[in-house]
């Protein structure tokens, strides 16, 4: 257990991956301040829980996830994970870099989604505990899921007071598309509350991209 200026960091074993998935140990890292508590797995850098203090002073978990590893080793809609190499869809799973065309695995109708059949959300990352967070690292080898280049990736979660920050850094040996994000689902009313269909959100954007029937931007 490490204690920074305002953040407490703990690590514990969350479970064991199935043998067919490599059988590695999955760790959970708990970052806690006076107003926020977040739990993150070494599997897929998944945010398992994010507890925040509401106006009533009570803590509520505002992200969707599972209590056990089994939920994450089965098919699920990328709950809380870091997705990549490319988040979202690549039309027909094809792109051209340096006059060479690459074909990716199609896992979402006619498109490639969130890194393909086994993206960043389904692999174990190497953790390093920091004074106020945790940094995860992995090497995505040249040709993984059809992408070019050895890609080193660092994803760092830090908690400072009420602010949870995620920093992404990548270094590649060949030109490659990369678009990393976290895929948490939020319900700001907290765990155990009803669905979010009566929630309202305002996005101060000047433009947005319309998409076609397969969710590819029309341009």
TrEMBL record:
It catalyses: alpha-D-galactose = beta-D-galactose. GO terms for biological process: galactose catabolic process via UDP-galactose, Leloir pathway; glucose metabolic process. PROSITE patterns: ALDOSE_1_EPIMERASE. Keywords: Carbohydrate metabolism, Isomerase. SUPFAM superfamilies: Galactose mutarotase-like. It holds the Pfam family Aldose_epim. Pathway: Carbohydrate metabolism; galactose metabolism. GO terms for molecular function: aldose 1-epimerase activity; carbohydrate binding. Belongs to the aldose epimerase family. Mutarotase that catalyzes the interconversion of beta-D-galactose and alpha-D-galactose during galactose metabolism. Beta-D-galactose is metabolized in the liver into glucose 1-phosphate, the primary metabolic fuel, by the action of four enzymes that constitute the Leloir pathway: GALM, GALK1 (galactokinase), GALT (galactose-1-phosphate uridylyltransferase) and GALE (UDP-galactose-4'-epimerase). Involved in the maintenance of the equilibrium between the beta- and alpha-anomers of galactose, therefore ensuring a sufficient supply of the alpha-anomer for GALK1. PANTHER family: ALDOSE-1-EPIMERASE, GALACTOSE MUTAROTASE. This is Galactose mutarotase.
